[in-house]
UniProtKB/TrEMBL annotation:
Residues 49-192 form the Glutamine amidotransferase domain. InterPro entries: ChyE-like (IPR044992), Class_I_gatase-like (IPR029062), GATASE (IPR017926). This is Glutamine amidotransferase. The keyword Lipid metabolism does not apply. Keywords: Glutamine amidotransferase, Transferase. GO terms for cellular component: cytosol. The keyword Amino-acid biosynthesis does not apply. Pfam families: GATase. It comes from Nocardioides pocheonensis. GO terms for molecular function: transferase activity.
Amino acid sequence: MKPFLLIATRAEDQAADDEYAAMLRAGGLDEPQLHRVRLEAAPMPALDLDRYAGVVLGGGPFDSSDPEDAKSPTQRRVEAELRGLLDELVARDFPFLGACYGVGTLGVHQGAVVDRTYGEPIGAVPVTLTADGRADPVLADLPDTFDAFVGHKEACRDVPPGAVLLASSPTCRVQMFRVRTNLYATQFHPELDVEGIVARIRIYQHYGYYPPETMDEIIDRVRGAVVTEPPKILAGFVARYS
């Protein structure tokens, strides 16, 4: 089968490597089946999408809604390169799954308003599929409602024009949407288990997601969460497009 491509933007090696390992595990892939490009480290290489079964965009510390003059040169480059890639992906209706940062990038690309209205603190939230979500083949193995890990400063106020809302939570209406037939974005993290989110809580303690002095309290809270279903999204994506 063709490999999948993971586009990563995490500058911290542990976070980047943990994310890659989690994507492999959740997707049931081995390393030759998931190529990785660390976009924060170097410009986007020339990509021949015909070599790949699908593209996955991981999360990261960039906020799409930040003012342009507050963005680093790296963030501005990454966003410009992702816009160019999404131009081709959307035009071709090419299989794409964006996790967390994917909502901001695909949402902005498609005309959604992304701001801090519906940010959610780090933790597990109940996510409920819409009728369209229950009918979507990538989500076929999920229950109607399941817990998922979140932790984001910004979110889509609503789905982009023409997109299909697939899942919502009580505190963030847009938890997952689909553009055209084959492009997906989740606000929650489909790849994360408890140990994965604990590691990220530690790594990003000074990135403004929470007051650093509350780190141990947040870790204690997430250790009590039961989050088992979201990886089925990655497994479903891989199964559909392999």
